[in-house]
Structure formats: C-alpha cells, structure tokens
Amino acid sequence: MDKVIRLDEKMLDALQKADCDFVFLGGPGAEMLSPKYYENYIIPGSQTVTQMAHARGFQVYSHICSPVEPFLTMGFYNRMGIDLFETLSPPPVGNVQSMGDAITKLDPHICTRGNVGLDALLNKTPAEIRELSLAILEQTRGRKHILAASDYLFYNIPEENVAAMCAAVREFNGA
Description:
By secondary structure, the chain is of the alpha/beta class. The chain contains six helices and five strands, in the order αβαββαβααβα. 30% of the residues are buried.
C-alpha cells in the first residue's frame, strides 16, 4: 500500500500541472475484499491519498459500480474523505435497498452520481426512464446529486432514453 500511495503522490503532482479538477479514487466493492482488509488498508490509504489530493486543490471521486453493501452501512465510504461517490443502485445493478435509503447512510457533504441502471436504459421506454429519473431526483431532493447512468453508457443504449433522462432533469428543476 505504501508503494501505491507513493505512486499516487507522483500522479497527483503530474495532474496538478495539467490543471485537473477531479481525481479518481477507486475502491473494490464488497464482493472483492473483506471488511477487515478495507478497515486496515483501503480506508487509511484512501484517506492519505484524498488528503494529498485536497492539498493540491482537487476534488476526489470514487466509482464503485459493484455491490456496496454492507460497506455503505458500515460507514466505510464516509471515512475515505471523498467528495463524490457513485453508484448507489438497487438490484439488479447494485445491492442497496433504494437510493433514498442509501443516501441516509452517506455523509450529506458527499455528492452522489448515477443511479439510472444500465439495464433500465437498455430495456425500458423513454416514458419509463423519465419516471425512474424523476423518482431518483425526488429521493435525492436537498442533496448534491448528479443524475446519470449507473455506469458508463453502452453504445447500444437508445438515444431517446438518454434524452428522457435529460428531459426529466429539466422538468424536475422547472426549466
């Protein structure tokens, strides 16, 4: 872990010269590591790298598109020092009960992103995507949240479904 942190520090120095705003801090999901390993290595290492990033003026983003429970409930992501976290998806994409329940377990200073499942974007109609998007926006009302797909978009996602997500944001915000 010390070697990784030293490499991360060199990377942060290089990114600072590139005038970046955000840096990515990944962490494996619950299916990859034990809670003890997270406690002993991932959280302390993440805290160190996050502090180095913040000292350089960066915001820190963490993307874990795999199941995040029980680490979410255990407060692990709150302790990492991150500024933006994704993804808090219910099954079949993730394993949280709901977006509304998940955000109650996440520090309100952490911005959330995502939560329209790729399965939905691939298989639902634009009207269904609109309703799903509005439900997510309602559950995140009063918090910092960026509505987006639960992971990176597949090439075969219908453009109309992405447009329906965008239209739902405009509708929700009264634009």
